[in-house]
Amino acid sequence: MKSSVPKVLHALGGRTMLGHAMTAARELDPWHVAVVVRHERDQVAAAAAQLDPAALVVDQDEVPGTGRAVQCALDALDARAHAGRAAQLVHDDAVDDELHADHADGGDHPLGDGLDGSVVVLAGDIPLLDGATLGELLAAHHADGNAVTVLTTEVADATGYGRIVREEGTGDVLAIVEHKDATPAQRELREINSSVYVFDAATLRRGLGGLGTDNAQGEVYLTDVVASARAEGGSVRALLSDDPMLVEGVNDRVALATLGAELNRRVLAEWMRAGVTVVDPATTWVDVDVELAPDVTLLPGTQLHGATKVSSGATIGPDTTLTDVEVGEGATVVRTHGSLSVIGADATVGPFAYLRPNTVLGTHGKIGTFVETKNSEIGAGSKVPHLSYVGDTTIGEHTNIGAASVTVNYDGVAKHRTVIGSFARTGADNMFVAPVTVGDGAYTAAGSVIVKDVPAGSLGVARAQQRNVEGWVERRWPGTPAAEAAARAQTDTTNGQQSGPGLGAQAQRQLAEHNALTGAVPVVDPARTPATDDEGSTQR
Fold it and tell me: What is the pLDDT of residues 481-511, one digit of tens each?
């Protein structure tokens, strides 16, 4: 992989390859799961413990090969079985000193051979292998009473893979031959070993005991157990998978990307069959742990990661990335980047919104264009429509936050909280310097810097009185484009002319229709409209 990250910790579909393998293993509901580590041992062991604290992490020694890896695991599992048996004997007062003496003289282990039953072995770099396929392999092993059952598949180019050599007539597996050790005739075979097996524990234990490193790679091959099982008269059979991608391994980043795309294709296909609309699967990525309800719509450019959960009727995208976000029914999230947040039912978010962790938006709420939120609760029906930052804030229900507002939550040392009540209306370009509270039903004036609490139902105003210094530009910056524009405007006003070109007839009609629909107040050019005195008479 040419990486400081161990191969099995590279991820696809939101889960490491080790995570995919351990998840598939756990779906069998096994008595024990053992993870063998060697290269970058500490990183892999920590990841395994986080994925499954009950898993047994086993160190492989310096002897290379898959056979040695499994031997180390089986020794550890046998030791665990012996410990459990010993504890039971102590509990039952059934420990026999004579058994210990027999063992010391070279007899059988006083606590039995160790682990019994079926042992499933799989590699940590086969990310598309699932629990259902492992379940079929295990069922075939039990049904046939096999000593060894191998999962195989057929590929067009088998270069580098171990070949399955079958017995003519019965189809039983005679041997698994590694590519480097194969004869020219064996290299023509297309059926390959997937490195996924089920062994009878006793057969595996005996076979591992006789393994050596007499091969082209100088390793202990697990595949040699197949030959030893055959020599004992045990049945060795193969389950042929007709889906080569299920057992495709990853050895470089090219394969990682290829299998990642295939995994995503399969995930999307499953969701579409379950009632989710994916408008453009080619640009939509959904991790394996994401949950989607029927009638969810995913628009192009959508990426859903981690434990994201989207409820029925919600629309996500286009161009939206959500990680560990919960989206309520009927919500709309457009061109948004969000993580560790909750979006309520029928809420709207975006476009161009940024939801940082611990954002909670209530039902019918709105987080609009160019709005960033963090560690904040925004109540039902409340709106932060545009150009604002809301951090460490609690906003009640049905409150409207004016454009270009900022909750100033950090004093350079600690974060402080802003509280804005329900049914409040805050003006545009407000700064709320935390800690501060704006009460229910209160208003704040545009351009205010709110540093004191505003009681419920009050108007908070914090701004200096405006003063106009006339002629300042022409005096301070004579000859500049601004000064010349000011001089022209004064001349036009004096002559009663319109300053600048007016709207055409069609544009005026469209503006009038828009104002009628929205209730907007039309803008009237004072230079073109007669003024009136206080009693309503026209002034000329």
Answer: 999 999 988 887 777 665 445 567 777 777 7
Percentage with pLDDT > 90 across the chain: 77
Considering the entire predicted model, what is its pTM? Answer: 0.86
Contact predicate 248/126, CB 8 Å: yes
User: Closest Cα partner for 344 from 414, 282, 412, 397?
Assistant: 397
456 and 421 in contact (C-beta within 8 Å)? yes
Active site residue 386: yes
Known binding-site positions for Mg(2+) = 125, 251
Output Rg (C-alpha) for the chain, integer angstroms: 36
Per the annotation, binding residues are 7, 60, 65-66, 125, 162, 178, 193, 251, 356, 374, 389, 400, 403, 409-410, 446, 463
Residue ranges of alpha helices (H) inside 169-252 are 184-187, 201-209, 224-231
Question: In the structure encoding, which two tokens stand for residue 333, read together?
Answer: 């999230």
> Under a CB-based contact definition with an 8 Å cutoff, are residues 10 and 256 in contact?
yes
Map tokens 């540093």 to a residue.
Answer: 451
Binding site as annotated, residues for UDP-N-acetyl-alpha-D-glucosamine: 7, 60, 65-66, 162, 178, 193, 251, 356, 374, 389, 400
What are 176-204's pLDDT values in tens digits? 998 998 999 999 999 999 999 999 999 99
Number of neighbouring beta carbons within 10 Å of residue 165? 17
Catalytic residue among 91, 109, 386, 514: 386
Give the model confidence (pLDDT) of 90-140 as tens digits: 766 655 554 454 454 555 666 778 889 999 999 999 999 999 999 999 999
